[in-house]
Amino acid sequence: MRSTKLLLVASAAIVLASAGVFAATSNDALFGPPAAISLAQAVTTAEQHVTGKAIRAEYEKYGVRGQWGYDVEVIVGAKVFDVRVDPTTGAILSSQEDRADRDDRKD
To answer: Following DSSP, what letter does each residue of 15-46 receive, concatenated?
Structure first.
């Protein structure tokens, strides 16, 4: 009985560890160039730009040319804005109201 419990615990640990490795390697931000500004700085910049509160932020590759940047979703009243922040300069690259799209299904 005790060996069965140990086997189950060991199996669960292996499954959880391998899931963690998969999750880490599937995140494109791990392979991107280092950013000159922090995620916190990008969030603050985005919040100030549209005068709202960030609800999600990530460092990601986007666009046809595979550019890197911070994508910050900011709530302003009943609206949500997608704000892209340059990871090198901290400048706002774009800001637009978020409309429901296929990317939202996985969020």
So the answer is: HHHHHHHHHHHT-GGGGSPPPSS-HHHHHHHH
- Is 81's pLDDT higher than 90? yes
Give the pLDDT of residue 54. 97
What φ, ψ does residue 57 adopt, rounded to 5°? -150, 145
pLDDT digits (tens, 9 = 90+) for 14-70: 333 333 333 334 566 677 888 999 999 999 999 999 999 999 999 999 888 889 999
| Core vs surface per residue 16-46: b (16+ CB within 10 A) or e | eeeeeeeeeeeeeeeeeeebebebeebbbbb
Residue 62, both tokens: 């986007």
Report CA-CA distances (Å) from 68 to 3, 47, 86. 50, 20, 8
* Residue 60 contacts residue 28 (beta carbons within 8 Å): yes
Map tokens 């391998």 to a residue: 18
Q: Which two tokens stand for residue 54?
A: 């960030």
Residue-level pLDDT at 93: 95
